[in-house]
Task: structure prediction
Amino acid sequence: MAKVYYDADADITQISGETVSVIGYGIQGRAQSLNMRDSGLSVIVGNRDDEYGSRAQSDGFKVFGIDTATRQADIIIMLIPDEIQAEIYRDQIEKNLKKGNAIVFAHGFSIRYGLIQPPDHVDCLLVAPRMPGAYVRDFFLHNSGVPAFVDVKHDATGRAWRRTLGLAKAIGATRAGAMAISFAEETELDHFSEHFIYPLIIGALTLSYEVLIENGYPPEAAVMELYGSRELGEVLIEAAKIGLYQMVEKHASPACQYGIHSYSRKLLSHNTRTQIQKIIDEIKAGTFAAELLDEQRTGYRKLKQMRMESHSGPLSAAEASLRQLIQFRDRE
Ligand code: NDP
Result:
């Protein structure tokens, strides 16, 4: 059974005298900074002087360049995109690391692939929430929390786990549960979802829409049926609460249950299992990591192209049209 830490296992006062420098004020940076400040920690932000920096300032944080924020820090949390972390670390962070500092990651990428190797006199910690920043903040404000994976790669101070759990508590993660797994496991599992589960769902929805339209179904009705009604989202939340197959039995008619069981056997074959294994092998070999670093070096050329293609596809117009037609007044 995995080891999971809860609020009672963690103590924010272990780190309350320390200055926490959050590097990056984006999706995770903003949410974690606000939660930690609300939990009583002393938080400053390291960011370039631009839109993100201004947002941190208007949220009431002292904002410095990354170099300066790191020099003032006891705990440094790396909340900038993974593919640029090594460069920023090398140029603006490494030289400022003092004995007893902690460097914290929200995803194991830079450590798992050996892109950053913090010195031995520094704690190296993982506090990796399992949802986007908006939820990290929203759950926290509703007295709940987003679960996280946690790990200590290197304990220089003898306090590394206490610091990790103090941080996990301060962002609300131990309210739900902070599960101990290794940096490598966190990185590989995270990439697996991104390389198989999400592409499969998003790709299947997009392709289904295109073929349904070719078959003459009304665009808004197709989007409504596929995911616009929110049924898919709601039943997946229910599945997380009570179990995948329990959800099907509880909510689906015999016709629906028969369809789901028989078609999941037809659609997923031995080849799918082979494909899953190939994806895991590529993640472990670092194939994707190398590709991502290349992509960043070329200014995200392929990503920009793929984004443009998906935005200009017919799906966006049908989604916008459906949003005008269907209202979820009681749930907004
Ligand atoms: P974002 O893409 O939201 O990061 C944006 C921030 O990074 C901004 O502050 C931006 O500031 C800064 N930044 C971007 N490029 C540069 C650069 N070249 N030099 C300096 N600063 C830069 O990141 P996320 O919050 O998505 O991810 C942060 C970490 O959290 C990653 O390790 C990620 O894997 C992890 N994580 C993310 C999750 C998510 O919900 N997205 C979930 C769990 C973990 P500016 O451009 O102004 O310099």
User: Anything to note?
Assistant: The chain is about 60% helix and 10% strand.
